[in-house]
Amino acid sequence: MQAAVVYGGVQVHTGDAVAARPRTAVPWQLPPAVPLTARTAEVERLEHHRVSVSRRGHPVLAAVSGLGGVGKTALTLSWLHGLRPDFPDGQLYTDLGAQSPSGPADPAEVLSGFLRGLGVPPRQVPHEPDERAALYRSLTAERALVVLLDDAATAAQVRPLLPGGRNLTVVTSRRRMSGLALEGCHQLQLEPLAPEAALELLAATLADDRVATQTDDARALVRLCAGLPLAVRVAGARLAARPGRRIGTMVRALAAERGRLDGLAIEGDHGVRAALDLSYRGLPETSARLYRLLGVHPGREFQSAVATAVLARGPADGGPGPGSAAGPPGAERALENLYDANLLIDAGEDRYRFHDLVRLHAAEKAAQDESEAERAAAFRRLADHYLATATRAEKAVEPYHPLRERSYGLGPVVEGDPGPGPRAALDWLERELPQLMAVIRRARAAGAAEACWQLADAMGPLFVRRKHYDEWLAAYGEGLVAAREVGDTQAACRMLTSGGQGALGSGGHGRALEMFEEAAGLFASIGDMLGHARTLNYRGLALQRLGQLDEAAVLFARAAVELPRHGDERAGGLARLNAADVDLDLGRPERAAEAAAAARETLLAVDDPYNAARAATLLGRSALLRGGLDEAERLLSGALDDLGAVGADSETARVLGALGEVAERRGEHALARERYGRALALATAARQPGQADELRERLRLLADADAEA
């Protein structure tokens, strides 16, 4: 800036407030829309509400309620997809699972998914639900965004998920959302289709002239379907597969079925249930068995490989034993039959899901037509499929990490393909996370406790790298109970140490220390000295986070000696690295340099470039404290290149802060400000408040010094 005279005080801004905001992405999460029949008036009501509220500058909130199968989601998706040009900042979607067998979704977990969809890295998602909601509102306050909250259970479940700003939120539920009245919610009760509209839908499903030529029977059919689009589509799909069958034949069968099911009707869905029963009885044998056995799946979506797994026959059925990857013939065709019968929804990318009523019906048929032993065996094959595929992904990410041998059921085990390379493997684990967690939560009750803790164990690489803390803590909590149930002390130790690392990362330092100490006691009780030595490192980290530096230094020193003695050179190098960090905090740069140099040598030897770069950072900081500016610049610049390649924001911020101090000591204040500003943005984004406060103070002092000069 150039000016002849400057009035008032001069303020220097580094731009950190803007740079520190989490980077946002543009999510397009809505499922595909399906053709909509005769809902023009309802769409017009929703659109009129949207326009009138938007003109007043308020956020738009609407709730669409109605019977199961009445078409709430189809209506909403059709409307919202048409609004995409008006909301260019994206679409967020979640199934809140009011009818899910595993229970309604936790709003805190939904918020975590929304934040990741908006571009917040998993490690930066706040741990506390209130903090998540606040960040979510902040990120959506200045955006033009659509949010669809599908199948809500209560207004209380919805309320934390309402975005900030003037966005559009739509809720679907079987119940009226009267509890959202204070939020200005517009209520739309969706009624079943009128007879003419239902006829139109039936004709579109059949795609022939039977509705036109057999009108009376067609009217009787849609009347028996109670005007529910799901029932009409299911009945129509069965007729469409039989071009020569008259509609009257379906009418007589459906009338008899509806009468049989009247006593089972739930909230008026007897039309859907009757149609589902007829479609089920019309399936080929393999398809009917697949439909039943998919009813034991506790998740909401699945890949086609799951169909192969649940249909597989074990040794008792004349099939192959454990370890076989071969599935039964006809699994793919059976899956296609279910889709053609409108019993499955194509979720894209080789993924399928049930409508909630269809899922309940499939589970009911499994209970009726499969023995308890066969249902348990099907669940075990399902769990083994996920365990085998997750273990394959784990090996792809950490090929040198020692694994516990997996134990499977009677088999066969159908292993899926998570994709080539470590990134694809991590992506598979992340994409399947809801299904993996559903299996973990169901496994103990289903008699598969070993699969429970082993599946949690296989998910470790995902948790360490992508920081899904809620699922991290929940998975190892379930796994710990399972390991204790089967009396496997080694497994219990793995659950305690892995779960403790999750607690440490999410801020539960005291709880983490308790878990590490419990694991240490268990390792000692079974004579596992390597396991016990590893807990020295973990306990030291917890003590360091708690501010007990001297106690942490003692444990790190012991770990640096004991871990190599018991065969783990890499962990010994990490112990020296941790010890160097504590020495710096205690003002002992010479000791820190010695420990960091030894750590770096070890970590390079075992091919761990990330942690070797961390050791170089400590060497550079030590040189800086000793006044060796050139040495510090060289070491820190090398570490910066290595850390930037892996996106380690917190460590990169630490290096930039140290490089800023090098520049400041040389009198290069412009360069120092630039480095401090970049470091502050990264530290804030990585949720490192202490580090960020220190950098702000350095920027303030630098500005004061420049002003005095």
Tell me about this structure.
- This protein is mainly α.
- It has a five-stranded parallel sheet, with helices on both faces.
- α6 (155-158) links the parallel β3 (146-150) and β4 (168-173).
- α17 (372-397) runs parallel beside α20 (449-458), α23 runs parallel beside α25 (529-545) and α29 (609-625) runs parallel beside α31 (649-665).
- It is globular and about 95 Å long.
- The protein starts with 15 loop residues before the first helix and ends with a helix.
Core attributes:
five-stranded parallel sheet; 709 residues; mainly alpha; 8 strands; globular; three-stranded antiparallel sheet
Mean pLDDT: 87
- Class by helix and strand content? mainly alpha
- Give helix % range: 55-70%
Detail the poorly predicted runs: 1-23, 260-268, 321-326
The biggest sheet amounts to: 5 strands, parallel
Strand order of the largest sheet: 2-3-4-1-5
Q: Termini separation (Å)? A: 18 Å
Strand content bin:
under 5%
The radius of gyration is 30 Å
Rough outline:
globular
How many beta-strand elements? 8
The number of helical segments is: 33
